[in-house]
Write a structure and sequence with these properties.
The chain is α+β, with helices and mostly antiparallel strands and 133 residues long. It has three helices and six strands; from the N terminus they run ααββαββββ. Strands 2-1-6-5-4-3 form a six-stranded mixed beta sheet, with helices on one face. Strand 5 and strand 6 form a beta hairpin. It is globular. The N and C termini lie far apart (61 Å).
């Protein structure tokens, strides 16, 4: 009986851990979605890793968190959002969460790619791309 009870407790704990990780991944994606939708580089910066890869129209650069915030601020200033939707989200084979979205500004459409990493104590954006379609 003890063996079975221990096994059940372990199973329940495992399910709760997986559910909590999935919730945390979904939560950051939702928060980032809202920040992009409003064109708020300041809000996005809350979720940026200390070093982040930013791609704008095929030009990828690695920036510090502060530099990336300014680059995104300039992008949003020149391309204010009309709408933003997440079209797909998931996780890589290695378990890294990502989201793909569609950003519309002044009649231009951009494919947005957000890749998130687990930094040990929270999920943060490791890469964000805006590619004009």
């Amino acid at each position: 009986m003890k063996f079975r009870t221990g096994r059940i407790l372990f199973s329940v704990a495992f399910v709760l851990l997986i559910t909590n990780l999935g919730f945390a991944q979904g939560e950051i994606i939702n928060d980032v979605k809202e920040a992009i939708k409003t064109g708020s580089s300041k809000e996005i910066a809350r979720f940026l890793n200390q070093s982040v890869d930013v791609t704008l129209d095929g030009n990828m650069q690695s920036y510090s968190k502060t530099q990336a915030e300014y680059v995104l601020k300039d992008f949003f200033k020149n391309n204010p959002p009309s709408s933003f939707t997440i079209v797909h989200q998931g996780a890589s084979k290695g378990g890294l969460p990502y989201a793909i979205g569609q950003y519309i500004s002044k009649g231009d459409t951009y494919r947005v790619w957000v890749r998130i990493k687990d930094t040990g104590n929270k999920y943060l954006i490791h890469e964000i791309s805006f590619i004009k379609e």
